[in-house]
Structure formats: structure tokens, C-alpha cells
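re: ur question from yesterday

yeah so i grabbed the chain u mentioned. its 346 aa long if i counted rite. heres the sequnce exactly as i have it in my notes:
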Amino acid sequence: MCKSRMARIPFGPLFLLGILAAAAVLALSRPAGAQSLLDAAKKEGKVVIYGSLESGIMDEVEKAFTKKYGIGIDYWRAASNKVLDRVLTENRSGRPLFDVVVTNRGPMLFMKKENAFGKYVSPESANFPEDVRDPDGVLSPIYRMVIVGILYNTKLVKPGDAPKSLDDLLSPKWHGKWVIPDPSRHFTTGVWVRNLEEFYGKDWLAFAKKLADTKPVLAESFIPAAQKIISGEALAGITYVKYVHIFGKEGAPLDYVRLPKMLADGHHVAIAAKAPHVNAAKLFIDFFISREGMEIMAKEGEFVTAKGLYPPIKDAEKIKAIAMDELSDVEYKKWAAEFRKIFVTK
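ran it thru and got these C-alpha cells back, copy pasting raw so excuse formatting
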């Protein structure tokens, strides 16, 4: 696997450092000055964003951004693999319609390799630890860790009956009753399955085959997986821990299993190589990864990398998250084919 540049450490230590030489970065990143950038962004009038960040969270970011700068956001949301496909299609056509992309690290690295992004080092990047910054200055620092765990329906499963570990999903009582995004089609889940090596060593593939033998319900991505748990189509499943809060606000009966460790996916934001609204795009990125932006995201359930900020999820500060190693495009294609045999066609 391609080794991630992120340290494989618990969630907590991925904290913002004190402000460094922001003025020097500002000079490099905003040669025309902050006010000039704002004036130019206002003339452009809007910023177009493609991403997998939940619409409700982006709505809150948009409210604050628009109130502060008077600039609107056009947001197209889809699963990360669909974001990847649309960005690459538009980029290869030479006529991209997007200004900014916000999604998880694996697809962002793919798009970076395809030259879909331009270089923009936001002044806010100086506030992040070196190990979460992109050395090329193309991607933003990793601003959040999205933690993958086991969620269950609290109306249909008593806490004492919920799975206590991944191994518990192998029990006959869970056969056909838990859900996972199809790892042969959903990029992040494919990376998650491959990273089971962190827990099972050389036996990781054998364990993945055992999981597949339980005939789990296959979903398109993490949100549909959570929705199947909420509806009762599945009693439990593999999806994002943050959905406990995001869907819980709407009354969804969800809780998560307190696993000793959980795999997590880092997320970036980047500017399009040929952004139609380049100044508005830069201004948005500055706001998005600022302390103010991350306070909004933490409040909405995100595990941001800012010091002292946690989502309103019980025991969030106790979670030990391990950053997943990314797969290259060649590796993912290889394992997607293997996972198709294991989970779909078997």
C-alpha cells in the first residue's frame, strides 16, 4: 500500500499548532493582499464546490461564509467515487465547472495525480502540524478525520446484544443482518477492508472473506448504509461514527460500538486547476480550514483536527483512531476486483 504521510496515531494528537509565520505565508499565497482577494471574490459572486461533505454541514458552513463575505456557494454533493468521476470527466474535457473539491484523501490523491487541482497554500495552513500538510501545496492540510466504526439500531438491538467487535459480526445471529458499502465499488470502503491488516496482520484477507461469508447487505456508500440501519433493513453495519450525531439530531435510533481502535480517513480541500471563480475559491478555502470553519464542523459532528474541538458524540474524546494507509490507483483496481469476487459474485 502507499504509505500515508499522516502519522498513524490516535485522533487526539492531530491538533492545530500555534500560529506560525502567517505573514510570510500570506505574502506567498495572497500577493494582492487580503482585501484585494475579497474584492475580487465578491466580483465573481459565487464559488462552485463538488464534494462528499454532508449537505447539512455544508449548509452551516455556507451560512457563516455568506454572512461574513456576501458570497454564495453552489454545492453539488455525491459519494466520493462519484465526485472523483465527475471531476476527472470535466477536467479531461478541459472545461471544468467546479472551483473547489472537498472529499477524502484517496480520491483527492487520484485527482491530484490527474492534475485536476492548482496549487494554493492558504495562510490557514500554517496553523496545522507539518505531518498533515501536503508537501506540494496542492491539497489543504488534513482538516478532519472521518472515523469508520460499527453502528447499530438502538430500537432493534439492545446495548448488551450489540456486537462488541468486528469478530462478533461473524456470529450466525448477524448473518445477513448487517450492512457494509460494497468495497468493490465504494473506494473508501475498499481502502477500509484493505486496512484491516492493521488489526489482523497477515490474516486480514482471510478475515475479510469470513465477513463476506455472513452475506452482509451491500450499500452504495456510507450514508445509504446508515439509512439501512435506521430503517431496520439492517440491524448494524460499517459506516461513519459521526452519523450517530448527524442523523441522531433527526431522531434516528443510532449508537456506535466502543471499539478499542477504529480506522479513519483523512479529508482535504483543494482548488481546481482551472477554477472559473478562482478568487472566491481561495477565500472559501481560507474560511473552510480556519478555526471558525472547524468550530462549525465540530459542532455538526465532525472529528476535526483542531485542538480542543470534539463533536457532540458521547465518549468522542476517548476514541483512538488510526489513519488508513491509502491505495494507489493500481492497487485499488486490483483489490476492487478481488473484493468483487469475495463480496459480490461469490
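noticed a couple things. The longest strand covers residues 144-153. also The chain has two domains: 22-144+267-311, 146-264+320-344.
anyway ttyl
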